[in-house]
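The following block was generated as part of the benchmark described in Methods. Ligand: pyridoxal-5'-phosphate.
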Amino acid sequence: MRKYDFPIFEHHPDLIYLDNAATTQKPKSVIDCLTQFYQNDYATIHRGVYQLSQAATQKVDDSRLATQRFVNAQHVEEIIFTRGTTEAINLVARSFAATQLKPGQTILVTELDHHANWVPWQQIAKEKGLGFEFIPINDRGEIDLEAAQKMIKERNVGLLALSHVSNALGTINPIEILIPMAKAVGAKVLIDGAQAASHVQIDVQALDCDFYCFSGHKCYGPTGIGVLYGKKALLKAMPPYQFGGDMVETVTQGYTTFAQLPEKFEAGTPPIAEIIALKPALEYLQGIGFLEIHRHEEALLIQATQALQAIPDLQIIGTAAQKAAVISFIMEGIHPHDIGTILDAENIAIRAGHHCAQPVMQHFQIPATARASFGVYNTSADVDRLVAAIEKVRTIFK
Amino acid sequence: MSHLDQLYQDVILDHNKNPRNFGRLSPCTHASHGKNPLCGDDYWVDLIITKDRIEDIRFEGSGCAISKASASLMSSTLKGKSVQEALTLKDHFITLVTQDQATDAKKALGRLAIFEGVKKFPARVKCAALIWRALEDALQSSEGQVTTE
Ligand SMILES: Cc1ncc(COP(=O)(O)O)c(C=O)c1O
């Protein structure tokens, strides 16, 4: 029972937490790491001549190394700490797309993408006279690969930005096909891995993507910390994203020289405790191992999919062949919000809404879905409780 | 009754399933559009007001059971009421779903008081209140204007 690793379930023994795609609960190792750092070891980094500060700096460096190993980056300075996926994407939009792409070039996303991997590109495109388009999906919620091939060939694509795993539907995108497709026309590729980091092994060298980003809070780590991986040569050529302390070498009235990677992109005092506590989160995942995580979550996904499909008037939205343990669904005549409220009364936390993916909702012509998303601590009994609660929804709305 | 039963009472479920006064009014004298961007509740409310009296009122759109039943019950209550009476009921309704001591509001609201159960569900208060906010906007912003949307 992995629930024992997560103190939240001691305080809420009856809680069935199925909103893991929004954010995950924290294992004790992560909470202890945060507490210990604040209680015993707290100091700022880089500046201190004193031992506490040197030790904190060492811990941050260790966390960066752990992150490098986690995504299998070639160089440690290719790991930039951000506030989350959203900030990582905005950084690339500002420092790469706005400065390196040329008018006439297109930024391509997919119809599946989260607003975080949509709006920054759309806005930069407007500002810089770039094209902005999306690759369509089919009715199973899978990227249309033929359309992708055609658009990549014909649209003068400068950047392809797409999610590894869809948060709204759970689709695992075939990025190992799409990345080489884009690279063949000279485009750069950013992967939004916010939903992938807790479910699948990431290997940025094998993928050969140019940027990869994810958020700590969605993979059992703290909020306020995210990761941008970027290829060294690209990051070196990009101007800083924000300016201030910690990211400079020499400052005079007339000019400033900027620090080397990764500090060049980490202006100001970072979320030190959160960076440090990212390491035990990544180690927690690696401790279980992605093979085991896949086996566990796939079993839950199959059990839940079969059980939900058997419920009359319930329709699963997103039936891709390759899916992470996320199930979006709608029920005839019952709004997702009402489903969410009734499930909450049964102590089951799910999400109801558009999941920050309005283009996906538009594709299926629905305003919202109910979404159950699973994590390492969920059990087969959780699925049974979910199914029973959905039956209760039907009884109330019969 | 459990909190949940108080929320999803038969009257509310009935108005959700068979909303009264559902559709647009064209032409109308007052109209407004209410939206809860987070959950996607989305309704139009159209009114025909002559000599300060609500002659007809209709609503159209989509959303959860609470928002739809609220709109349906509001529309059937307000027909024939004066603008001032409607605005007073609106104040009472907001009091009912947000404040603990709402005895006067309850009395004034009559059968609309069944929405009292919403108070126990903070996330749903905005669902119940949405149509009343739209009504307020319609009565205030397009006073005397004809819209044919
Ligand atoms: C696919 C995807 N991309 C990006 C984000 C944004 O992540 P964050 O809010 O942690 O910046 C999310 C989170 O909801 C997501 O699911």
